[in-house]
Amino acid sequence: MMNPSFNQSDISPAKDFLELSWEMFGELCRALALKVAGSYDPDIVIGVARAGVIPGAVVASIMRKDFFSLKITRREGGRVVRQRPSILSSAPHQAHGKRVLIVDEITTSGETLRLALAAVRDVGPAEVRTATSLARTRGYKPDFYALATDATVIYPWDRKVFEGGGLVVNPRYRDADA
Fold first, then answer.
1. Which pTM value belongs to this model?
2. b/e burial code for range 3-31 (CB count within 10 A of at least 16 → b)
3. If we measure between CA atoms, which residue out of 114, 116, 56, 60 comes closest to residue 89?
4. How would DSSP label each residue in 23-53?
5. For the segment 109-135, what is each residue's pLDDT rounded down to a tens digit?
6. Which residue, of 22, 74, 107, 158, has the fewest CB within 10 Å?
7. CATH architecture of 15-177
8. What pLDDT sits at residue 173?
9. Looking at residue 140, what is its pLDDT?
10. Residue 162: what pLDDT?
11. Helices 22-37 & 53-63, crossing angle to 10 degrees?
């Protein structure tokens, strides 16, 4: 059962697009690291794979913390194959007794972050908090986020995908050029 505050329109493509350059993405990661550092000092950072490992690794590097990953997804390959996200790897045992920061690229319904929180709590951390580069203006709010938006976000690593022997505009973003 989905979160009662969850609405399918929260994950449906918006009319507006927010295309992030690598430079802008880096600035979001720096802003997120500064927000976290202002009130929390994690021992380790765990990025939610797939896309959350990118800001997670950057934030961990900026904060000079060890980085680990946890795979939670609705997808296999490039296709959505599950209605709800599933945990596909265990939380790192290194989280035991540590202050942990879980990082993902965006949160909407909060299902992925809630699964990550449960998985990490199972290994017995001292404390755990959540952070995302982006958050929707309604729905689940992580402990920290760099920017709130309801636009369809085009990440620099996802704008073009490998298809037919070369890079092409991701079919999900064809309307962004219209």
1. 0.85
2. eeebeeebbeeeeeebebeeeebeebbee
3. 116
4. HHHHHHHHHHHHHHHTT---SEEEEEETTTH
5. 999 999 999 999 999 999 999 999 999
6. 22
7. 3-Layer(aba) Sandwich (3.40)
8. 82
9. 94
10. 86
11. 60
